[in-house]
Amino acid sequence: MSHIIVTGANGFVGGALARRLQDSGHRLTLIDRDFDAAPAPGARQLRGSFGDPALLDAALDTPADTVFHLASMPGSLAEREYAAGYQVNLLATLALAQRLAAHKDGARRTRLVFASSVAVYGPLDADAVHEHQAPQPAISYGAHKLMTEIALADLSRRGLLDAVSLRLPGIVARPASESGHGSAFMSLVMRRLAAGEAYVCPVSAAATAWWMSLPCCVDNLLHAAAMDTAGAPPSRTWQLPVLHLSMEQVLAALAARYGDASRDLIRHQPDAAIEALFGHYPALHTPAALAAGFRHDGSAAELVRRALAEAAICS
Amino acid sequence: MSHIIVTGANGFVGGALARRLQDSGHRLTLIDRDFDAAPAPGARQLRGSFGDPALLDAALDTPADTVFHLASMPGSLAEREYAAGYQVNLLATLALAQRLAAHKDGARRTRLVFASSVAVYGPLDADAVHEHQAPQPAISYGAHKLMTEIALADLSRRGLLDAVSLRLPGIVARPASESGHGSAFMSLVMRRLAAGEAYVCPVSAAATAWWMSLPCCVDNLLHAAAMDTAGAPPSRTWQLPVLHLSMEQVLAALAARYGDASRDLIRHQPDAAIEALFGHYPALHTPAALAAGFRHDGSAAELVRRALAEAAICS
């Protein structure tokens, strides 16, 4: 029985991952500031910040085989609250990595799966993005994610950690209550139409974005925990494959599932700022990530099905 | 009269910079753990670590207009002493940047000139390196320099700092006493031949490296302090132009200056590790840095002349 730790375990992604892990037969330690539900049998909940050394002492009462580090302050919020984002997204994350590196026990190293972000790239123009493109973050959240990737690669190179950093796109469909994500519209459009509710969409029908469902994201996180890293690149970083879809393609998939009447529920009222930031994503090429076993949802229809199936469970 | 701070001001580069600045008429604060000489009139020496908050309080009794951050633990040493390198080269450096950012006074931002390193690139193959190449550091020193570049770019983007990061090559001709640099042979070969002493060179005559003299490096640091950053790239980072020379070309320039007899003082006894790390540098293209006004020494003859003229002053 191995010991698995999940930070941000009450979050949108972390909660789904915890549910998937709770029947795995492993010892499971869940860390978050609060929890919406009681722990499953065999799982342990620790309330507090992963940046609190005493809490980490408790979490690491037995060394962790695998740590999923998902906790972070979302991008829009971290951009407004710089000092708090710097503390959580950079300093506390680096301290966690140092702590896990110090825990190295002989040849046994902790597999640290780190939720990085496509925010590392910075402004995207019309050209397709390749997974090896030099990142140029344009928000502090992206800068701190990129710095963490570099730190984890260095600790892995030194043999002190066994890190896998995944650059996640926006994941759908988040609950309407979640804030701090500028890309919230991507989830809202799905949930509203599935519920038969009208929605004023802040991007045009032609707006393109990178899409991934929550179950697909969890699949990729679990793959990152299980994969052989012997042939991993020095960066220890993979850009997850995504579906590159226009809002029109997503609306068509929703209409196919929920009826053509759902088309009448949508009114486009593009917000220039949101359209600029989240409406012009180019194609994304990820041959290395695909070769390493990471996957996108396969099709818009499957994206919608999986995103809303999971939403039904967790909202 | 503006206030200029130099960290690592007793080092090889910092000392030369301090000598150049001491007659500039500005208020000059020099920080280092120790000093070999008394301060020039108008300059102030603070003994201690730039990572010590109390020392920074003293240094910043009046806000700094310009900070040259040159202090760091050298690459080879930081690779052996990971914890110390992490503390100095990453954490203390980030704390210094935060401190200067917090000092922002209205529209007045501190110009922070940061000595980054070509160590950010990682292994170099036969292909020419372009200044925009995606870095992939292979030592902790390089990882921490790269992380700092990203942090400074982010603080500059936020308007809290006005940073310029320069990726420095090995600088010649360091005193023989300096340790921790795997590239020490580049300086030793110059000093020994200039002094008429025999030298066993640990790389072959064909070994190629990136060369810059100390006066040239100081010129570039001063240019970084004075340049207009209005059109700077978001990275705030420039790869300094270098001379890409074989050891044979450097030996020829030394022979031209010190006589053909100096050729007999050299015996090549390549060390496989040093040749691998420092003997196969490819060409380096830096059009953006040249356009921004940064310069290399111009020729092997001028490199040798300037490297040894400065060496004569400071050793």
Question: Which chains make the largest contact?
Answer: A-B, 26 and 26 residues
Q: Report the end-to-end length of chain A measured between terminal Cα atoms.
A: 31 Å
**What pattern of helices and strands is seen along the backbone of chain A?**
EHEEHEHHEEHEEHEEHEEHEHEHH
Radius of gyration of chain A: 19 Å
CATH class of the largest domain in chain A: Alpha Beta
CATH superfamily of the largest domain in chain A, by name, is NAD(P)-binding Rossmann-like Domain
Could you give the order of strands across the largest sheet of chain A? 3-2-1-4-5-7-11
- Summed up, the helix count of chain A is 11
What are the segments of chain A in which pLDDT stays under 50 over at least 5 consecutive residues? none
Q: Helical percent range of chain A?
A: 25-40%
Q: Tally the structural domains of chain A.
A: 2
Mean pLDDT of chain A: 93
- Class by alpha and beta content of chain A: alpha/beta
Keywords (chains A, B): Carbohydrate metabolism, NADP
Protein name (chains A, B): NAD-dependent epimerase/dehydratase family protein
Organism (chains A, B): Duganella lactea
Pfam family, one (chains A, B): Epimerase
